[in-house]
Amino acid sequence: MDSLGIDQIQINKVPADTEYYDVMNGSHRWEVKVHDHGKVALVDSMPRLAPVGQTADFAIVQAARVSYGAGTKKVTEDKGLIRYLYRHQHTSPFEMIEFKFHCVMPVFIARQWIRHRTANVNEYSARYSVMPDKFYHPSAEDVRKQSTSNRQGGEDATDTKTAQEFLDYLDQVEANYKTYSELLDKGVSRELARIGLPVSVYTEWYWKIDLHNLFHFLRLRMDSHSQKEIRDYANTIFALIRPIVPVACEAFIDYAFESIKLTRLEIEAIRSGKPLNTANKRETEEWEAKRKQLGLPEPVKVEQTQPSSTEQA
Ligand SMILES: O=c1ccn([C@H]2C[C@H](O)[C@@H](COP(=O)(O)O)O2)c(=O)[nH]1
C-alpha cells in the first residue's frame, strides 16, 4: 500500500527536442597512466549527453539563462557568455557540470589532494582490504634537491650518488611489504598491519567534483609551485576534461591560470613608475617577477637628496 501517494504522482517524460550525443563517445572510461603505478580515469560526466553540435559547456549556458531556449542561441554567443561569467566570477553555473574520476595515487599525494574538501570521495579501505604491493618509486632524475628559496619545494635534481642512496632507501622501506604480508597471515588485523607501510604506497578513490571547484583545484595544483607529483595528476585531469568542456577550459586558462593578479601597491607602482611601497622582501620579489612578466621597465631610482650646505649649517 502506498500511504504517501507516491504511486499516484504523474511523471511527464518530455521527449528530447533535439538530437543528443554521449560526450564520452560511448566509452566506459577515459584512462591515463600517471607515474609508475598511478592512474586517472574519467568515469562519468554530468551532463553526459549534449545536443549535437555543442559541447557539455552548454550546461553552463543553460544554467545561466535558466531557460529552455538556450539551445537555440548561437554557439559564439554561448562562448561569449561563458567567458563573461568566468571573468566576472559568476561561478554557480560552472557548478552545474560535474565529473567523476577514479584516481590511483600514492598516499603522500592523496593527503594533499584530500584538502580539496568540495569533492565527494570514496577511498579504498586498508581496514577492509589488503594494501597493494605498489609504491611510488621515482626515477633517478626525479630525485629533487631541497630548494633553498622555498621551504616546501624541490626543483633541481640531486647528484647521481645521492639519488641512488635515496632510491636504495626506498627499496628498503618497500621491502617491508613482505613483513606486512606475513603479519596479515599470522592474523594481525589489516587496520594495524598497514601502519608500517610508507606513504609512497598507492591508494585509490572515486572523486566527484563540480567544474567550479575543479578549476580551483587545477589552479593550485597545475601551478609550478605545487609538488611535481600532484601537478602530474592535475595536468592529466585537465587533459581529460578539456575535450568535454573546451570553452570553459579556455576561459580558465585565459582568465585564471595564466592571468596575473595585481595588488593595490602594485597598481600604484605601475602608475608612479616607482618601486613597490613596502619593506617586505618577499612581496617585493613577487612584484619583480610580475613586472618582468608584464615587460614593464625597472622602477626609477629614488635619489637620496643631499642636504644643501646651508641646511647642513
Ligand atoms: O603543497 C602542499 C603542501 C601541503 N599540503 C597539505 C597537505 C597536508 O594536509 C599538509 C602537509 O602536507 P605536506 O606538506 O606534508 O605534503 O598540508 C598541500 O595540500 N599542498
Automatic annotation (TrEMBL):
<keyword id="KW-0808">Transferase</keyword>
<protein>
    <submittedName>
        <fullName>Thymidylate synthase</fullName>
    </submittedName>
</protein>
<dbReference type="InterPro" id="IPR003669">
    <property type="entry name" value="Thymidylate_synthase_ThyX"/>
</dbReference>
<keyword id="KW-0521">NADP</keyword>
<feature type="compositionally biased region" description="Basic and acidic residues">
    <location>
        <begin position="280"/>
        <end position="291"/>
    </location>
</feature>
<feature type="region of interest" description="Disordered">
    <location>
        <begin position="278"/>
        <end position="313"/>
    </location>
</feature>
<dbReference type="InterPro" id="IPR036098">
    <property type="entry name" value="Thymidylate_synthase_ThyX_sf"/>
</dbReference>
<keyword id="KW-0285">Flavoprotein</keyword>
<dbReference type="Pfam" id="PF02511">
    <property type="entry name" value="Thy1"/>
</dbReference>
<dbReference type="GO" id="GO:0050660">
    <property type="term" value="F:flavin adenine dinucleotide binding"/>
</dbReference>
<keyword id="KW-0545">Nucleotide biosynthesis</keyword>
<dbReference type="GO" id="GO:0032259">
    <property type="term" value="P:methylation"/>
</dbReference>
<dbReference type="GO" id="GO:0004799">
    <property type="term" value="F:thymidylate synthase activity"/>
</dbReference>
<keyword id="KW-0274">FAD</keyword>
<dbReference type="GO" id="GO:0050797">
    <property type="term" value="F:thymidylate synthase (FAD) activity"/>
</dbReference>
<keyword id="KW-0489">Methyltransferase</keyword>
<feature type="compositionally biased region" description="Polar residues">
    <location>
        <begin position="303"/>
        <end position="313"/>
    </location>
</feature>
<dbReference type="GO" id="GO:0006231">
    <property type="term" value="P:dTMP biosynthetic process"/>
</dbReference>
<feature type="region of interest" description="Disordered">
    <location>
        <begin position="140"/>
        <end position="159"/>
    </location>
</feature>
<dbReference type="GO" id="GO:0070402">
    <property type="term" value="F:NADPH binding"/>
</dbReference>
